[in-house]
## 1
Amino acid sequence: MSSESVAIGRPGAPAAQRVEPPHAHAGTRESASGAVARRWGLRTLALGYLLLLLGAPVGMIFYRTFEHGLAPVWEAVTQPNAVHAFWLSVELVAIVVPLNTVFGISIALLIERGRFRGRALLGLLLDLPFAISPVVVGLALVLVYGRTGWFGDWLTSHGIQVIFSIPGMVLATAFVSLPFVARETIPVLHELGTDAEQAAATLGASAWQTFRRVTLPAIRWGVVYGVVLTTARALGEFGAVSIVSGRLEGQTQTLPLYVQDRFENFDTTGAYAAAVVLALLAFATLLGMNLLARRTQRDTVV
Amino acid sequence: MAIEVHNATKHFGSFTALDDVSVTVQDGALMALLGPSGSGKSTLLRIIAGLETLDTGRVEIGGEDQTDAPTRTRGVGFVFQHYAPFKHMTVYDNVAFGLTVRKTPKQDVRERVHELLGLVRLDGLAKRYPSQLSGGQLQRMALARALAPQPKVLLLDEPFGALDVQVRGELREWLRRLHEEIHVTTIFVTHDQEEAMDVAGQIVVMNAGKVEQTGSPRELYEHPNNEFVMSFIGPVNRLGDALLRPHDIQILSGAGDHYADAVEALVRRVVHLGFEVRVELTLPDGRDVWAQVTRETAHELELHEGQILAARLPAPRVFA
């Protein structure tokens, strides 16, 4: 469509220039150079900001990590505690992200397609994890699931340990990364409208067939982006997990907790190396989801 | 199959969309639901499809009560106003959708889809995506998709509303012929009286959630039940409580007092619309009317602004 409008616009342009008086040219050129200056000014500002905030610190981490070559880095990241922390973080992501994806899509459908009172309230509740500090989340979980908490007695008598173990860490991570998939999906669902879904119903599709074949393909970009954000948030979570995990070395220490631990023990090489691994994990997620999304796009839009 | 709606009532909040509406559509008929926006015609169509639920009343399709049946088991083909294409699917997959959700064997799907694409003249476009089709093509794809699972009835919501005038005319003609070929009971919603009269055999005129009159285009035009139907089906002049059709006003040469049954009229404006010429007149008592005459008549009378001539008014219709 755009190529068409360009083709239409082109023949008219030279004619318009020809009838313009000379001084009008000077005026346009002046404002054009102003636009160029503005554009470059904006670029410098944006890039400078990014460099100071993002580029310099991340760059420094990489520089300090590999300052003395690969050997000490390799040694640091293959420490049993580091390897354990790495796999624990991966495990948490592997549990939390699918959980929050399914849950996020369900909530989005409920808020956007449901017909019941209190949908607005549900939307507000959904944003709570954004508003509450992770540390408070951690403390709240301890209050509810800890040994002296509400469910403490019941849990202890049934031999279930939530706080200072994996279940508590899953809860904390799921809590802080809960809104992303739903928040990314809701506007896409809204934009999509209900026509196509109703058309599917008239054609005999069940609710599940409609979701699987009509709704999900249409909202996949929102979901994909939500998954990327959820993964990044789950991987990097520190505050809430720090409290509910008890930070037991080699047991409940995730990668971010391990970085903090190494740093406090003056093992900068260990801290930097683990931080780089963390950054690479996040980067790999971003890349992976991007490739996946690109492939689905190629499949569906020619 | 026949469609029967009995005493349908539907409210949206405090708004009454349907107020005790009963409509019967004979098996194999092509019927138009005609009315201004907000008259409840689209709501009635969506209720037949099960896309809206009734407050009170009953819907029967082919003699079976479908009032509480879910949309997907009603066997209705529905064409949405903006076609509701599945944008991520090809034309082929769009049309095949209603068959594949029923787990129809692949070979049968292929045959049926190609048969339908032929019927709607989209043969070469099976691999295209909806974004690559024109409005008219999208409309035909939506129709093929709705027909694929062999629906008991076909429902179309403002099927030509979003198309430009020329395409609209072609599709009207084509829909009428298609209906002659496949004979499925069809209801379409429109706010355009000409479209309804052109395509449908029966018209239900709706206004403010009620049915005003049901009949063939000719019946409605010649014997309107009330003022609303008369003024909605075709143009009218309003003289106090009386209504008269512009083409029933006869314009005669010479002044008014030449004829016993005519009045004097001053020509205010003459509008040439091709074959039809619209003459705006002022009557002696100061009231304005307009008359519809042919090009020939306008030529013979040498109609022009400021001219004084005689107009013979028909017996006006007054509805209590």
## 2
Amino acid sequence: MTTRSDHRRDARLLFATWMFLLALTAGSIWIADVDSASDTATAAVVLGIAALKAHLIAGVFMEMLLAPRAWAITMSVFLVSLAGLLVAFYLV
Amino acid sequence: MTAPVSRELSGGTVIWLFVSIELLTFALFFIGFAAARRSDPALFLAGQEQLHTLSGAINTAVLLCGGWLAARGVLANRSNEARMTARCFAGAAVTGLIFMAIKLHEYTDVFDAGISLSTNSFWFFYLFVTGLHFLHVLAGVGFLVPTAWRAAQGAYGPDNSSPVEAVAVFWHLVDLIWIFLFPLIYLAR
């Protein structure tokens, strides 16, 4: 069982992560809206933001930050590789 | 996050093996979408312009709320707060229901426009991949509701947290898939 102060700290971390995720979502919509034409740079930015959001969900919500390092590294490499590959399809 | 003293996988290894397979499968669909778009950008742009970005944005926010509630439920369970755990998981289930209602409204518009899986490659990917994700949301709600119910009965707690964590991990997987789906289908042009 967690102590009271641990619990409060963890709850604050979850709340801050959630708020940041919502802000990143709003930011990516705003960026996509500003450059509404077929802008490949915009695609790269919104997919990059998606990779960052995925890291936050995996790391904090799914507790990958506490997982065995091999799992955490594999997940991170997978998310970055996926986003990179998707961006490449838009840029190259 | 504090819980495990040693480095452990939240929910256990089995759920993470399942998550890995699911992520790899959806990654292939995403790559397929991007590759198909590359071969005919105009077709994909025309399809994207028929979608309601606002619906997708609201659904993203709804799922993020659900993700936070599930994570908060796991934390409450570790502190032996059965009622809070139940409320958080029930709340996450409600976000799943909201997501599905919005998505069904979107599908109705698409089908009313005479669009189907065979219309073109954009609509095939849109309907197939979002449909598959929809089924995952449905399954997630199907896991969250009984978990909330059992949590309220005091079936879990710090000494029996794996089932709660495994359901939360599945729910976050649903979130994670949508996090890539939303920009790919609605925003990136």
## 3
Amino acid sequence: MLLEGKVAAVTGGGSGIGREICKLMAAEGAQVVVNDLGTAVDGVGQSRSAADQTVEMIKQAGGTATPNYDSVATPEGGQNIIQTAVNAYGKIDILVHVAGILRDRMVFNMSIEEWDAVINVHLRGAFCVAKPACVLMRAQKSGCIINFSSISAAGNSGQANYSAAKAGILGLTRTVARDMAKYGVRANAIWPAADTRMTATVPESARQIRAERGVGQAAPMPAGPRRPESVASVVAFLASDMAQDITGWTVGISGDRLSLIEDPRPVKTVFCPGGWTLDKVAELWPQAFGLDLRHLQRAGQ
Amino acid sequence: MLLEGKVAAVTGGGNGIGREICKLMAAEGAKVVVNDLGTAVDGVGQSRSAADQTVEMIKQAGGEATPNYDSVATPEGGQNIIQTAVNAYGKIDILVHVAGILRDRMIFNMSIEEWDAVINVHLRGAFCVAKPACVLMRAQKSGCIINFSSISGAGNSGQANYSAAKAGILGLTRTVARDMAKYGVRANAIWPGANTRMTATVPESARQIRAERGLGEVRVAPTERKPEHVASVVTFLASDMAQDITGWTVGISGDRLSLIDDPKPVKTIFCPGGWTLDKVTELWPASFGLDLRHLQRPEQ
């Protein structure tokens, strides 16, 4: 039992990947706070049944769980989620932030409401739960935070808000790992892929259209089903003491493929003694970088 | 004159790197809208003098510029900035989003106000200016957006808000590049390094402490990092010489010019049938165990 004696809080635990994480962690001995506002994938609506159903499943299987229905997007909601763990089980060891919504739109059509809604749940939410968790974890000198990012962080047409949020989560996670390392607290991010209600909103035809245009995810179709249980397996491992040296990483998990994702970093550097001037850039860029450039799509005329 | 006939709007044009971009673009023939709310580095206060001084410098040098004092952080402000370019010069070809503030704090001490303030200017601001610019650029089938990110996006102790915002800007820029490519509109990001009032707020002692702890930026800079160097690269990227360059992140710091790679899988392991907890537990140490970097060993 990999998580015996641990207390975990999982946001977005009422559906899909979040639900499978709650179930697996409970099966591995953790006491789990299942947080879910219970909205639709676009964030509309509210219901207690999502979190309640996950809790019921866990209890039926002999595990320990408590529901929480707060929104992650506010400091009060985030504080409540962490406090629920403390009230129910005395502490918090593991925080997994899975909660997220979609409001896909091409950037020239995207409203500020669509932008804010997605940023608030994913990115502001990540801060609103991580901050109070960090306060407690720092005091107890142990703990583990796992944030859900996405390959969309590397760019995905129609998802300016989601790409920004999911990339922002990587920046936050990398810095939390650095701020908290000396206190024995770890932070990592996940690039998941699974067939859940969230990916079901992208029609297969739309995915194919995107692929043909060379936009969107350039991911080959997986050989087998991409089950949320596989994602939960990796998350449970990262949350355990087996992973106590793993911090500051991004891990990709999609069905049968497990990946290390590298952070943005300089891959080629050219020096100009005295400093780069416009003349030097104009003169040297084509030779220095010209051959390295990827073309997303040739600029239309 | 690399930017003859172009119209540019530059947010944060009242100081530091933003000012040098405005000056150089104007010198290269662009008509420039200099946007700046005129705050301190922490976002406090407001003044017209920052943007006005940049405009004055440009005019003294024989160039054309117009000031704008809106905040980038609201859709109304962003719309106004773009509209100022249209009203003054008839169109917009280039948008450079440099505006940004700092509210450094360790994560366990960071307030929601410190979080929101930094996210709003950098990241929400990037959307609030890019969206109206994209509407116009899509219609005219040309244009170029350059957003300022930072190496801090790769993680920097004490900057949870700034790292999140600067990493988020990369995600936004990559997607804008994809959304806009078929309309002939480009989008790229910058990782700048320069000695300006913004980097002056990080005391050298703090930087040394971070370096000793293995935290923060690991930076060696023998050549002075001038904002003019950053402006050179931005101006190049905004020009027609760079018309095939989109979706990239470019680092520029004094004498070093870099291509920055996007996050990507660097090692992938397959488990036929799908990964289970037992398989992860069994195979992780042998497969990834040797690749892991250790930021800092947890204390016991």
